[in-house]
Amino acid sequence: RSIRFLTFLVASVVLVWDPCRWRAGILRLSREVRRADLLPSCFSVPAVMAGEVRGVLAPRFRCLLLDHDDTTVRGTDEIHYPAHVESLRQLKPGLEPCSLEEWFARNHDPGVFTYLKSIFRPEEMDREHAIWVEAMEAAQPSFYEGMPEVLADFRARGGLVAVVSHSPADVIWRHYDAHPLAGRIRPDIVLGWDTDPERRKPSPWPALQALERLGVRPEEALVLDDLSPGIRMGRAVGIAVAASGWGHSVPVVQEYMRRECDYYFATVPDFAKFLLPDGREPTSSL
How many whole angstroms separate alpha carbon 5 and alpha carbon 236? Predict the structure, then answer.
């Protein structure tokens, strides 16, 4: 038993050493302590480490599976749509770009990759992708007002964050690292664009990976997204799903999200009141 305890102690130090993932490590550590009864009765993991801060209510969900573009940052109107317009200018100069509203609708259904393949020939897709990458490297999208503060509060209460997005993971990390609150809002994990469709939403794979790596049960998590791929991913895994309605107001998307989601939030403050209860009833739901 002494050897087990020492081994566990060393492993736990390694587990929580990375400051960007210490909350996930502490939560896993506290569960293992309770499950295996490895520590003497005079020792305990402090409640604050497990998110049970005295006088502050815990988040409504332990884990947030968070979309990035148009949920957390203004990715589409500041980067992705202009990149698409530039792709058409270079590769299809005779083709009129769709409107920003229609671009959102195409990302919602049939999905961005399917839509792009309907426009560009296979030999043009590499250049289209390069134009998109160049646009992401050249610009830093702004966070929606209040969203960084919501994430900082959620993290301070012990919440875990897994970003699941169609943007590349390294780009998402860069966006977080550039924010003044980076040390307080940086996610635990990021699951970004993957060339394998089975490893990107709406496939359940990213959600399953996030739950497994963070040690979270489906009923302890919430998906927050602005489009159908994230909602379909969450539904496939049995996770509650919420719509971030503040990024755009495309009728076909709004209709779908209000119908299919467990919760619909028109503004960031409405979402904050729900996720971070202060003893009052949430003001925003379906």
Answer: 39
